[in-house]
Amino acid sequence: MNNHIKDVLDIGPNCYERFIKSTVLAEIESLDITLAGCSNLSGKYCVGRTSPVEITLFYTLKGQGKLITAENEYSLLPNTLAILPTKQSFEVSIAAKQWDIIWLNLANSKRWQHVNLEQAQVLVAQKLEPLHYAMEILYSEPDATLRQSVFPILNKYLNTAILGDNQNKANTRLQHLFQDIEKRLQYDWTIDEMCKVVHYSPPHLHRLCQNQFAQSPIQKLIELRIQRAKNLLLNTRWPVQHIAGYVGYTNIFNFSKSFKKLQGQSPSEFRRNHN
Fold it and tell me: Which of 108, 119, 117 is nearest to 163 (CA)?
């Protein structure tokens, strides 16, 4: 654990950094990249940031770096991608004779909400050389028309190669959560109980559910309960009150209210009309 990270900018004379110009970043404004560059580092290099407002990405091309967060320390080897969420204080430094990287700061916008993780993550065996080449062209090519040819590459690798794995993992965890919920609809599910299952904070769980289902976690829970209730109303003779309890409603008035809101009719009317 390291809770003493400070803002540090200690860069020696043997470090070469190529920042992509703000005019070029304006051309790719739709990708919500606030800052980016390519760096060839050796000798003295240490950068620390406390609670940055952007999502930070470091991709290691050659050599080795070290990442320190409040929770852990990571070795940044070739083909690793470090993803640092907003408000995640960190420090990066050289851990070998050289460290060649590309780095990007992504805005904390709706576009990148799904990658704003709870804590830092380091992905291994990432193949992002095309992203590196695209960024070098953005830096060195003076012709704006020619620069446009690499925008699709940048877009693809940011959305698929970099962030696709995390989105898929998040989707899988959500799928498992709601599969578990569907198996135990009678359980008193709360946001806190859901968060314990997937190890997310309530705001992060809410963002992921909105991205995948266009619903809040509670709305998704209600949908599952009403779907099960519909099936039981049509295929059993159980009283409505028993069905309400089976799908997690201790109060039949609340059950009827939720059912009517989604179906436009009461449970009894639904059973009568469909039978």
Answer: 117
Which of helix, strand or coil describes residue 115? helix
Domains of the chain: 8-149 (2.60.120.10), 169-274 (1.10.10.60)
pLDDT recorded at residue 1: 47
Nearest 5°: phi and psi at 47? -130, 125
- Dihedral angle of Cα 212, 217, 220, 225, to the nearest 10 degrees: 150
Note the pLDDT of residue 242.
96
Polymer length in residues for the chain = 275
Q: What angle do CA 268, 273, 230 make, to 5 degrees?
A: 60
pTM of the model: 0.61
Given pLDDT bands bounded at 50, 70 and 90, which one contains residue 116? low
Q: Long-range contacts of range 184-190, CB-CB < 8 Å, 24 or more positions apart?
A: 185/224, 185/225, 185/228, 185/246, 185/247, 185/248, 186/245, 186/246, 186/247, 186/248, 187/248, 188/248, 189/221, 189/248
Q: Which residue has the tokens 């739709």?
A: 30
What pLDDT digit, counting tens, does each position of 52-78 carry? 999 999 999 999 999 999 888 999 999
Choose the weakest-confidence range: 19-23, 81-85, 158-162, 226-230: 158-162
Tokens, residue 71: 């929770």
For the chain, what is the mean pLDDT?
90
